[in-house]
Amino acid sequence: MKKGLIFSLLLLLVGQLFFAQELALVKEKSKIGYIDKSGNYVIQPSFETAKSFSDGLAAVKEGQVWGFIGKDGKIVIQPSFSNIKDFHNGICIVEKDKTWFYINKKGEKLTMPYSDKLYDFNEGLAFMKGGNKIGAFDTDGKVVIRAEYEIIKPFQNGFARASKDSRWGIIDAKGNVIVPFEYGDIGEYADGTTWAKKGSLYGVIDGKEFKIMDEVDRIWDFEGQPMTYAKKKGKIGFVDKTGNWVIEPKFDKARAFNQNFAPVCVNSKWGYIDPTGNYVIEPTYNDAEVFSNDHLAPVKGKDWGFIDKTGKLVIPMDYDISKSFGFTEKNKGFNDGVSRVKKSGKWGFIDTSGNLLGNKWFYNVELFQN
Q1: Which residues pair with 60 in a beta bridge?
Q2: Its domain of life (predicted)?
């Protein structure tokens, strides 16, 4: 009895791991398939038109209609839709018979609040629009934010920028006002902090207190970091959450800190500084991007390669790279151990040692998705 129970649990665990793994869409000649991070096909290239996995399902087109497959390559929702979007929070927007509506993962039509336009779910909410006003409802169809805003930006970590009466503030996923609607512009809200603009003045909001920063031309989002970069009189430095300069503005360009390194540019050359503002990697590159959590950063000479935190070039400058945008912006470079790269007109993935996944190039590849 115990052996049978253990075997069943093992099968369940294996199944969960299989369906949790990330797969990447690849195009080989005229057919699309999906590979895992070993570079091997999990789903053989057999589709002429398909999309990346999202929320465990991928849209594929058969003839003139769309349906969805699971990670075993089998049809989960029969092709019957003339147009589709992606699944988010278990719900997808589809079109059939010239009508757009929501479906669940069984392909069943859902009844949701009326909206002039249908929006994808994000962090458990979808926007609804009536006339010129925006609100939001949850996956059960319950309205949680009344349609009283002119604009609501996508939620990030439970908070969203919103505009009301031509002024910007911050709301949470229940519609509570976190930062009052007093600003001409406002940044993403993270860890109780954001930047804002009131009249012609920029400043930092820590909690609800707005601290004006003199002569500042622009402030970038904190993105969960203890400091961000800001521009003053044409030069860029770094400020903390209280609005004080930690690193005086002296750079021509800069990007965000991660792994305690930030790319900065002086006289058209890029290098990296530490949180005290001292160079840890001298500015010698034509371009440079943020260090990823894989402890590698893309740097450019003629083409792109990757350095480690000692400044050593560990992957040669032989590639083109790109950034992907969604509800969450992915790093330009490595994400969870792999980077999408292009060489000699073909696309593929390399690992952190510079090895080509599956030792194979493709006509196109998309980022690994779950």
Answers
A1: 50, 67
A2: Bacteria
Q: Given pLDDT bands bounded at 50, 70 and 90, which one contains residue 4?
A: low
CA-wise closest residue to 240 among 278, 275, 188, 288: 275
**Domains of the chain listed by start with CATH number:** 20-105 (2.40.10), 112-186 (2.40.10), 252-359 (2.40.128)
Q: Do 269 and 286 contact (CB within 8 A), yes or no?
A: yes
Does residue 325 register a pLDDT over 80?
no
- pLDDT at residue 14 tops 70: no
Average pLDDT, the chain: 93
CB atoms within 10 A of CB 153: 15
d(CA 189, CA 143) in angstroms, rounded, equals: 23
b/e sequence 88-116, b meaning 16+ C-beta within 10 Å: beebbbbebeeebbbbebeeeeeebeebe
CA angle 268, 270, 271 (to 5 degrees): 150
Tokens of residue 110, six digits: 């859902």
Closest CA to 246 of 213, 273, 276: 276
Does the pLDDT value for residue 326 go beyond 60? no
What's the pLDDT band for 2 if we cut at 50, 70, 90?
low
pLDDT digits (tens, 9 = 90+) for 133-155: 999 999 999 999 999 999 999 99
∠ CA(11), CA(13), CA(17), 5° rounding? 115
Token digits for 224? 């969960």
CB atoms within 10 A of CB 338: 20
Distance CA 357, CA 151 (A): 42
